[in-house]
Give the backbone structure.
Amino acid sequence: MRMEVFPGITMDPDVRFGKPCVAGTRIDVATIVGLLAAGETVETVAAEYSLTADQVRAALAYAAHVAAHLPPAVRQAS
């Protein structure tokens, strides 16, 4: 059962263990973000994985959205 969780990003328990992936592919968001963090360009990642630049940017936007909405992992000072 595939479900769109963000524009251009889907999750399916039968694809990549349910990890968020670029819609219509088996390329997970973590792979794309990791490559960009390692210094690869959007264009290089897109070409290497047969994606469009917009699909790569959708993965990055999803990662930013998730990071912005997670609660902090540390306690506030008392």
